[in-house]
Amino acid sequence: MSLTTTFIPKRSRSRSVLPGFGLSMGFTIFYLSVIVLIPLAALVIRPWSAGFDGFWRVATDHRVLAALRLSFGAAAIGAGINAVFGPIVAWVLIRYRFPGKRLLDALVDLPFALPTAVAGIALSALYAPNGWLGEPLSRLGIKVAYTPLGVVVALTFIGLPFVVRTIQPVLADLSQEAEEAAATLGATRLQTIGRVVLPMLLPSLITGTTLAFARAVGEYGSVIFIAGNLPAISEIAPLLIVIKLEQFDYAGAATIGVIMLAAAFVIILALNLLQNWAASRR
Amino acid sequence: MRLLLCAVAVGFIGLFLLLPLAAVFTQALKQGLSVALAAISEPDAVAAIRLTLLVAAIAVPLNAAFGIAASWAIAKFDFWGKGILSTLIDLPFSVSPVVSGLIYVLIFGLQGWFGPELRDHGIKIIFALPGIVLATMFVTFPFVARELIPLMTDQGRAEEEAAATLGASGFQTFFRVTLPNIKWGLLYGVLLCNARAMGEFGAVSVVSGHIRGLTNTMPLHVEVLYNDYQFVGAFAVASLLALLAIVTLTFKSFLEWRYADEIAAVHHH
User: Fold this and answer.
1) CA distance B134 to A36
2) Does the beta-carbon distance from B98 to A220 stay under 8 Å?
3) DSSP at B267
4) Which residue of B has its CA nearest to A81?
5) How far apart are CA A105 and CA A92, in angstroms?
6) The pTM of the whole model exceeds 0.90
7) Taking CB atoms and an 8 Å cut-off, how many pairs form between chains A and B?
8) B179 at the A interface (CB within 8 A)?
9) Is the Cβ of A16 closer than 8 Å to some Cβ of chain B?
10) What is the per-residue pLDDT across A172-196, written as a single tens digit (0 to 9) for each?
């Protein structure tokens, strides 16, 4: 691998006495290239077989645009819901003691551990017109399953742990002295939270919400069962990739794939900038 | 205030997390335990369970070996490009599961890079076991590495350097010094890697072809049954996967509680 030569130990500074750099680095670069980098390169190359026009035609197709809008829009709403409730959950788990707290804490990770297809059929059974939640909601005239609202529900489910788990350690490290000082100086509890606690939590809240958004944009398994998958209405972008693949439209599938990959890169970049900003604030 | 916040938190988790979990088991047991058991012991379900175990048995050890190699290189040596390498290792987490499957179809599929050559030699990768394993390896790629890199960086190099100075070989150093230090972190990473490997749906769905009894993993079998309106069967297989998730979470909480200091300095999500 030519890449190996790029990663040379800084021998000039100090020569490590430990063995195995060549072996471990060689295996790392080889495995990373074979499993991740070369296949991703195959994706990036593919859409241009019909030139930029071909790419643009697929990217601006009515159905593709609608699917992208739904995936990004519903992911943003889901992340927004988690940005409100996630901090409350984190706060309760860190600050209060109550029976069943450990169970509640472990349960937060459920969306990480539960296979997405299982989450998908469970959510659609719950929110279907005859389901536990779907029936009372439909009497109120609210349809969740098989509508874009169902997509939002699934993406909220999938994103919750990202927000809670990012905020939790920051909240745990937060000294209560600042809050006590604010209270001593006459601030009400709400003022203390708004002016003291929230600003300190802000970087982790934005990071967690961004992570939840990033995960939700590409989510597939938990969504397709509850979405109903009506073209241009409740059809998400990853599903459209699958549909194009089934029609052997590889270039079309790759075009949507590249757009989603580009979005992922933008998010990674934004998170890195965010971390630098948070570090400089400290 | 306090009571209100607790109620909101418990209500939100109950509504969004506990209720779906309860729904899986309730739906599975709707027609009694024997019907559910029959659904998970019919041949296609057994084949799906076997395939899922096989795929995890291949993908997880390979990713664990990669995780150890990558964290050894990154934590124990200084070199240019370390930040880039770490970012690249985390990359699969940011890629949509469907795209993770798509990339292998673009390479090995009938109209992919090597499609025609593979067909001429009678080698099947897409719609067969190798494709499913590759897609699973991609989505679970970072789990062990991302767990071990911060842990081993935090532990430093002094102990290994002492061992090496005293004349231990590379493998002796690794097995006698490093491995005992990272074993709980490694187990933690493997646990999460395995849960995702057995439960992966999107990526595997793209490369599997959904051939009943042949290329259907458990999550895919759940989908096939559900789309066939065999709801009890679908939820019965789903409840096996839900049990796996519960066991994983229990074990994970135990490790976090018992070996908190030996898992990772930087806390994970």
Assistant:
1) 10
2) yes
3) P
4) B12
5) 10
6) no
7) 299
8) no
9) yes
10) 888 788 888 888 888 887 888 888 8
Task: Count CB atoms within 10 A of the CB of residue B183.
Answer: 12
* Percentage of chain A modeled with pLDDT above 70: 94
Beta bridge partners of B79: A9
Phi, psi of B79 (to 5 degrees): -155, 160
Residues in contact with B244: Cβ distance below 8 Å, sequence separation at least 6, in sequence order? A113, A115, B195, B198, B199
Nearest C-alpha of chain B: how many angstroms from A232? 19
Count of residues making up chain A: 282
Q: Report d(CA B40, CA B45) in Å as an integer.
A: 5
Across the range A97-122, mean pLDDT stands at 90
ipTM for this model: 0.89
